[in-house]
Specification:
Strand content: 25-35%
Protein name: F0F1-type ATP synthase
Structural class: alpha+beta
Distance between the termini: 83 Å
Organism: Paenibacillus zeisoli
Number of domains: 2
Order of helices and strands: HHHEEEEEEEHHHEEEEEEHEE
Number of strands: 15
Radius of gyration: 25 Å
Shape: globular
Largest sheet: 9 strands, antiparallel
Length: 329
């Protein structure tokens, strides 16, 4: 057999495998691109939501408890802002039906308040006429609470303000850790490092245990809406928890969206009182079709298209810096 014949035979045999490999490579690159886009959208949304947490409607909900960390978290405003940014970046800002479908991929949103947390989750219930209904709703507020073998109960907060039921004294006491430790027989209060380790463990375990049950229940809800993906609680890194346990914050999960032959599964955490960069909006000048980016605090007159966490990210997507900025009232 001639060398040219062998070469043709080689191409005929190997060619299809090379083509399939090339297709798979392109699919993997597209999946990575989509995952990166979804992560950017998720981070921008949680930053938007977190920035609204301490925007209190009533003055009496501002700092109290003799602590500069006590804020009544504005969970509804934070949720609205988070979802608005997500809808916008996924191109469904004005499509109510698509938004309802999209919510199936958000098994839980957690708002961590000063002295407890709320979970926004899917819920199935019976209406006033005994009809089956399904919707998303907030849980009741769950305290950061623990009890020991002696029957003492401790309600933790995001700092060293603590409420304790002292079973030996038969009464509740509330105040700064140093103050309550002197008048209480609860041993965990005696050493600040032990108290701090216990506080962090209780907060994390309370939220994670509750989330595991919530996300597991969401599987039934999602299955009734045609989603076969198995939702599970991802591992939240210790670093993320450490950056969260000292201030009010928001935690959102986005899972089950197909990307290639896999599924997107991620979460994002945002703080309510951390110093943040300004949220950047990307909009289109409808007269010229040119895309511009500008700070969220500006009334530019452009049609809002996307939300970014930085000017660099917006510029990379083809947006130019806007010179128009009329401050919103």
């Amino acid at each position: 057999m001639k060398i040219t014949d062998l070469a043709v035979l080689f191409v005929l045999i190997v060619g299809p495998f090379l083509w399939v490999s090339s297709v798979h490579s392109q699919e993997r690159l597209e999946a990575q691109r989509l995952s990166s886009r979804y992560t950017s959208a998720l981070r921008a949304a949680v930053q938007d939501g977190g920035s609204q947490l301490n925007d209190n409607e009533l003055q009496q909900y501002e700092a109290g408890y003799a602590s500069d960390k006590y804020f009544r978290a504005n969970r509804d405003q934070a949720l609205d802002s988070l979802l608005h940014t997500l809808y916008l970046n996924f191109g469904i800002g004005e499509d109510a039906a698509a938004q309802r479908t999209f919510m199936n991929y958000i098994p839980a949103v957690v708002v961590m308040d000063y002295d407890g947390y709320y979970i926004y989750h899917s819920s199935e219930y019976t209406g006033e006429h005994n009809e089956p209904l399904a919707d998303y709703r907030w849980s009741v507020k769950k305290p950061y609470a623990d009890a020991d073998k002696q029957g003492n109960v401790i309600h933790f907060t995001l700092d060293h303000y603590v409420s304790v039921y002292d079973s030996a004294a038969g009464k509740w006491m509330s105040g700064a850790l140093e103050e309550i430790a002197r008048s209480s027989s609860v041993s965990v209060l005696d050493h600040e490092d032990v108290y701090e380790a216990t506080r962090r463990t209780v907060i994390v375990q309370s939220i994670e245990d509750d989330l595991a049950n919530t996300i597991n229940s969401h599987n039934l809800y999602a299955a009734r809406h045609g989603i076969t993906y198995q939702f599970t609680l991802p591992t939240i890194s210790e670093e993320d928890w450490n950056n969260t346990l000292n201030d009010i914050g928001i935690l959102v999960f986005l899972q089950g969206i197909p990307v290639g032959d896999e599924y997107y599964n991620n979460y994002a955490l945002g703080g309510g009182r951390l110093v943040k960069r300004s949220v950047i909006h990307g909009g289109i000048d409808q007269a010229t079709g040119i895309k511009y980016y500008y700070r969220a605090s500006c009334d530019s007159g452009y049609k809002l298209e996307e939300v970014f966490t930085s000017e660099r990210e917006a510029a990379a997507k083809g947006y130019f810096e806007s010179r128009v900025c009329r401050k919103l009232p």
